[in-house]
Design a protein that fits this description.
single chain, about 170 residues, alpha+beta, 4-stranded antiparallel sheet, two-stranded antiparallel ribbon, 5 helices
Length: about 170
């Protein structure tokens, strides 16, 4: 399972991404990276229905590539992309229109990973990718360093699950 959340617009409209996922049964998750940060920010603009985010982010060097199984555009420059089959939406009512959010759940159907971000041992090269994450307010962070910690006392099955082999 994968999930994303989206606040409503100040006027109470729900985000097109949520509506499109519910109506088509599919959406794409593109890994946001430091190199893509400006396009990520532009893609968050409140646009009128029918106005294309792609037209806006193309000015930042972002190109479309299409999902294998569905006519859904993906960000070509994103090193990791998931084709997601919609499962459900959970609405959380807030104290204002913007405070109300939709949490969208989906199953990952297809994963696309650029070969140049896979290490020799088959893992994602996170320091090379430099994914970004929203912290709150207007703040973001970027991952440039990783470290490993093993859970003390975890049995072999648990260790294999945490490594992604289970």
């Amino acid at each position: 399972m994968v999930m994303f959340s989206a606040n409503q617009y100040p006027d109470g409209r729900r985000k097109d991404t949520v509506l499109n996922a519910e109506q088509t049964g599919w959406f794409v998750w593109n890994m946001a990276t430091y190199d893509l940060r400006e396009a990520v920010n532009v893609s968050a603009m409140a646009l009128e229905p029918g106005e294309s985010e792609w037209d806006r982010i193309a000015e930042h060097g972002v190109a479309k590539v299409y999902a294998d199984n569905h006519p859904i555009p993906m960000v070509a420059e994103s090193p990791v992309r998931f084709e997601c089959r919609y499962h459900s939406t959970h609405r959380i009512k807030g104290d204002s229109n913007v405070g109300t959010i939709d949490v969208v759940f989906a199953h990952v159907d297809t994963i696309h990973i650029d070969d140049d971000v896979i290490t020799a041992d088959g893992r994602l090269d996170i320091p090379r990718i430099q994914p970004i994450a929203r912290l709150g307010y207007f703040d973001y962070t970027v991952v440039r360093e990783t470290f490993e910690m093993r859970v003390p006392g975890a049995d072999g099955d648990a260790q294999a699950g945490l490594e992604g082999r289970a």
